[in-house]
Amino acid sequence: MKYVYKLVICLFVVAGLLSCTQSEVGEYGYLTVGVADEVSGDVQVKSGSDVFRVQVVDSDGNIDADIADHTTITQEKPIALLMGRYTVTASNGDPTTGFNLPYWSGENSVRIWAERDASVDIVTKMSKVIFSVSFPTDEKFQESFPEYSLTVTSGEGEAKETLVFSNSPKEGEGSFSDVAYFVVPQNKTIAYTLKMKNKDGAQYSSTNKIENVAAAEHYHFEFKLGDREEIDGALVLNISLDGEYKETIVHNLNLNFDKTYMPSYGHNEAFNPDEKGIVYPLGNDITKMLTFSAPRGIKSLIVSHMDYNLMLEGLPQVTDFVGISDEESNKMVELGIIGTIAEGGLSAEIDITEFVKNLSISPENTSYKMAFTVIDTYDRYARCDFEFTIVSDIQAETGSVFYWSSFAIFKGKYFSKTPPAGMTFQYKKLSDENWLEIDPSLINIDEKTMSYSYLLNGLDMGTRYTFRSTSDKDKAEQKVADTLIFTTYASESQVYNTSFDEWCTSDGAPYPNKDLSVQYVWDSANKAASGMGTTPTTQETSKVIKGSAVRMESCSVMGVLAAGNVYTGQFGSINGIGATLNWGLPFTSRPLALRGWYRYEPKPIDIFADTHKNLEGKTDFCQIQIFLTNWTKQFEINTTTGKFVDMSDDNEEIIAYGAIMSDINTTQLEGNTNGYIKFTIPLEYRNLNQPTYIVISGAASRYGDYFTGGLGSTLYLDELELVYDPTELTDEEFEAVFGRIR
Fold this sequence. Notes:
By secondary structure, the protein is mainly beta. Helices cover 6% and strands 45% of the residues. The two termini are 50 Å apart.
């Protein structure tokens, strides 16, 4: 089976299509990509997809184009490139080591000339070393050997990567139906270890190496049992390259399961690695010594693991103290693991006292897992699997803090089976001397995660605070948890005239502002509509909650819908049948919600654009929305060209967003106040960027921007305010605000 694909890259070149001079940027060409199935022999399926990622790199190493799907590059949609020489690469699959992760890649260079077509062929090849394994599936073999595995390790030192095939795979291991794909190691050497346990419990292990491995080589291991059943066997290694047979290597095995003089391990009295649920406090220094015996002689003494957290601590995945290099030995000593093999090679010790003492607290809900294996000269072995957890040496440990302008949420952890007595938090301003303590009865405890929390409200804005965890026992023993420092956000501003009590008039059009100079915060479409005898947005003094309200009615202007609206920003100019609007008010605070009152009387949609004809006759919708952005200036909306703010998650300029859309006539609802109902719009935060602008807007017709709505639909807004106090929100509203960023 050939692991080769051929891509045909065609270049269609056109000069001078962009308005730049040649002396500035040169002449342009256009690149398209096509894939041709010009492959001899069978083709292996590439993760179920024939889609290639294509990158175009210039002579300076800059990536001029990065296309995830080569099929999107066509003559109609080419890549614009300057004249010059480029390297074009193509790849498919996952470039990392793992099970069932094939990866094809290839590259070629091409020169772009003006007014001349060009093409380049890219042959993509399997770029990894491939391993697969098969064992007998007959009932007799399965009964004789309840446990067997093959461990494959590539590279050396910190670059080691290990994958395990097993008849009973654990998490992260593969079964014998899986295929392992290794990145070609720098030393081009891969080791493999066969481990077997027979039905009597005797264990066997054998290790060999393959040198000078190369990409696209496929090593298939097939275990065969010899004529004397449990005594002889062989690993038959069939090697192919690009799907073509290369050679067969047979490793004959003496499966010596003689139970006499078996290797074994032990430990000092104060340390029992075989116990379940071992827990050590941080910095525990009790001696932890493993002893090993191999009357037939020690062939290997191995420390191994497949623990991600131990990798973060710097522990190599596999270290053999037999034949260990000075570099590897020094590395293990630095980590606190000291291995000693006695003269004569019949016994050994591994001391891990300092290693365990220096380990970090175990990540939440996890434990450390490692193994110690002694293999004798008969390839029999004894293995100790050691699983343990490191916890804090104090009862209540400081966790994390989530803070805002006037409140913070403290989090902590505990490590005992039941919550410690008096578990709570202490806090103070960083400049203060005395600590304040929260009443332990107010603490929220989650026994499933062994954590606890408290929301502290009423903090000063723009102030540095510190906090820590504690408990009755920690205080009695004068143990102090770590402290965390945070600074609350600096402001809690309100937007001017959200009560809509102040109004002025300019050129016959009303505005919800005291004036249009210093206090020019709110605007509407009145400037465009009033010149044609219509005023969609007006001051309301009768149907109000208090003082005045803003009334927005959807009207017809020369047969085109003009939706009554209001927004923070300024009207721009009339543009065709629509207008430009400058949205946004400079603003740097972080409110939690917008609260207020609205009254809505919708009508059936009877004026519409062709694009929204499907809405004809349906009840109109109002919209109230609020969002924070990090714009550098106001955003110009153009209703004629359809230029609006992108509210999708892809727009990273949107920091927080919330909205209400409704077709309900609030005057018909039970419990309304003068036709109004109270509302709260949680601001759903997407990130913690610094806000620079706020937009608050209301519209009597949701689709007014598209000249679609119900003639006479009317929305009233009154007594709006920004909410900063978290206790004024329901649990659901609070979760909506912070659910994505906590």
